[in-house]
Amino acid sequence: MSTNHHEHKHHLKIDDEWKIVRAIVGNFVHCTRHPFAVDESPTSIIHNDREDVVFLAPFLPLHLNHILAVCEEGKIRYFGPFTPFAWLKTVEIVTLPPYAFCCPGFIDLHHHAPQYAYAGTATDRLLTGPGGWLEEYAFPAERSLRDNPEQTRHLFQKVVQATLQRGTTSVVYFGTLDVVPCQQLVDAVLQYGQRAWVGKVCMDRNAPADYCQPTQQNLTETQQLVQYIYETAGKRSTSPRLPLVFPLITPRFIPTCTPELLSALGDYARSEDLHITTHISESIDEVQWSQALEGGAEDATILHQHGLLTRQSILAHGVWLSDTAAQLLRETQSAIAHCPLSNFFFANQSLPCRKLLEQGNLVGLGTDIAGGYNPSMLSACRCAVIASRTLDHQRQSLTNQHEQSSSASSTLLDYRHAFYMATLGGAYALNMQNHLGNFEIGKDFDAVVLTVQSNIFVCPRRDTMADIFQKLCNLADDRNVSHVFVAGKQVIGSS
Ligand SMILES: [Zn+2]
């Protein structure tokens, strides 16, 4: 957002043009672009000549004492330095405390809602095989929702509340194999006013006999869920407002989906212009299983053959993508959902996230509930930073062993890169960058306010505002989430 843009907007009588209903006054932080979009060092904090904007990095301005106005449709209509506009008298004003920052709402690109029931357990299992994660935990937990509508409703309400309370405004949710629990998940999302992509999990092979469907039934129930979402949340092409819930084509992963099913899902996604999600090249055992079934082909190649790599595809993990596969994802503009906590347990390695971002791959963050046990996107941010440091340690130890200077470039990410992936990076991954991810005029106002509470120590004479924001990034939890807004509506916190 340029300064000119602000000055231009100053002179607009925005109350004549839009019905402003709410204004937020305080400090704002958001990413204005990709961290590696141009050759600039993101390491130093730049103070520009305006005292009310501090750049934490060239892509990450911190706006002090600003005002943001939201119209009736939930969109941002003004964002600039605080000015006592006449129309402020007629709207609801949310004035933030001095040590609070309004940030774009977090976007969780990978979440298995039914698995929230056992999040925090099963961390001692392998992903696949007898007694493994899928067979012992994931499949039974998902299947159990089939016969317990009350329990399912309660669980999904808790899922949506837990994510909203942590500032996650958009989530890409895997449902279950059965369509009815998926419809209940849609209901819970709409009840609490979150934004979500909800998919019926598809499986027609290598799944337990009582948790597997014939190929055609997978397709029929997927279409049923898509229709249900259009009926309850509206259809994007015909709604004046951006719907809160979007349909999602969701083959679980290649080992549980026949080529016929993958092709049918790819065709349907194309015909309806739908988002797609699945797992890709997650772990050594998953990669070996896929290759044994598909004549040695890589996951990315197989998905591409079936029309499942599109600009609206979100692929979880990608830890073991080859360079060719990563290139295929760039060419198709398919995104990666980086789930660092889950990767520590199941993937045998960390994603070379910085390299992928520098190469131009679209990468956002996911919690992967319950492969990752923590529903907080701030936790996912911290894990992404730690994962990047483990890769750096590996690089250093290899360099020492071979006694040669490493020519490998940096693997390191810091809290600012992670903040990008949790916000604007997630919006780009979903191809929603024109609607979500930062505070540009015209976007939907999806936001979280992070506020210093007694769990974070602030030393006023020592800490700059940049320090306080970094403390929140590293130390905040749900106690520090004072307000959450989705499409301009306050969904968490008292106004
Ligand atoms: Zn997953």
User: Termini distance?
Assistant: 28 Å
CATH class of the largest domain: Alpha Beta
Backbone CA Rg: 22 Å
Low-confidence stretches: 1-12, 42-47
| CATH topological fold name of the largest domain | TIM Barrel
**Corresponding CATH superfamily of the largest domain:** Metal-dependent hydrolases
Number of domains: 2
Largest sheet: 10 strands, mixed
The SS-based structural class is alpha/beta
Tell how many strands the DSSP assignment holds. Answer: 18
Oligomer: single chain
| Continuous helix count | 16
- Assigned CATH architecture of the largest domain: Alpha-Beta Barrel
Helix content: 25-40%
List the ligand species: zinc ion
What share of residues are in beta strands? 15-25%
Shape by Cα distribution: globular
Average pLDDT reading: 93
EC number: 3.5.4.3
Protein name: Guanine deaminase
Keywords: Hydrolase, Metal-binding, Zinc
Cofactor: Zn(2+)
Please, could you describe this protein's structure?
With 495 residues, the protein is α/β, with parallel strands linked by helices. The chain has two domains: 5-103 and 438-492, Roll (Urease, subunit C, domain 1), CATH 2.30.40; 106-429, TIM Barrel (Alpha-Beta Barrel). Helices cover 36% and strands 22% of the residues. The protein has 16 helices and 18 strands. The strands form two sheets. Strands 1, 2, 3, 4, 5, 6, 7, 16, 17 and 18 form a ten-stranded mixed sheet that branches. Strands 8-9-10-11-12-13-14-15 form an eight-stranded parallel sheet. Bound molecules: zinc ion. The site of zinc ion has 6 residues, from strand 8. Zinc ion binds at residues 110, 112, 279, 316, 368, 371.
